[in-house]
């Protein structure tokens, strides 16, 4: 008797594992590295390592801007004397601009995948601006705001250089613009004190 040919012992071919492998490989190739913060996967114009450094600098910049905003608002409320109206208007314009700037910087931090700072304790730890001093005469408050704006302008310059080195052109340009605003604020405040 002739033997029947034996069936091949090869396992059945399944298309599912190959398809799954292909999807996983494709996902690995297209996935950008994750940046700690909001848990999002980012694929921006800025390298992930550079985003960390720039976001850290921007976190300090937003703390400086927000603290200077609060301080300028306090001066706005408390100026008095013969120059009251002009100083009240000047500080009004400056604190409103600072509020918008803090918001824009915080939104840039979010765009880089980090969480923006919040809370007075956090701002106090990150800023170079002292805002816990008791009320002072108007001329002293204005002189102090002028110095604070100069200090923040210097910090923005450091942060702009860091952003430039990191290749973050948007943050660099934003910070360079802030330098000009703070230097102009300082000039206007100093000029208001001239006799």
TrEMBL record:
Task: Check the record and name the SUPFAM superfamilies matching this protein.
Answer: Ferritin-like
Residue ranges of domain Ferritin/DPS in the record: 56-193
> From the Swiss-Prot or TrEMBL record, what is one GO molecular function term?
ferric iron binding
Q: Where is the composition biased (Low complexity)?
A: 1-34
* UniProt superkingdom: Bacteria
Q: Which InterPro entries match?
A: DPS_DNA-bd, DPS_DNA-bd_CS, Ferritin-like, Ferritin-like_SF, Ferritin_DPS_dom
Q: Where is this region: Disordered?
A: 1-49
Q: Which family does it belong to?
A: Belongs to the Dps family.
Question: What is the protein's given name?
Answer: Ferritin/DPS domain-containing protein
Q: Which organism is it from?
A: Sphingobium baderi LL03
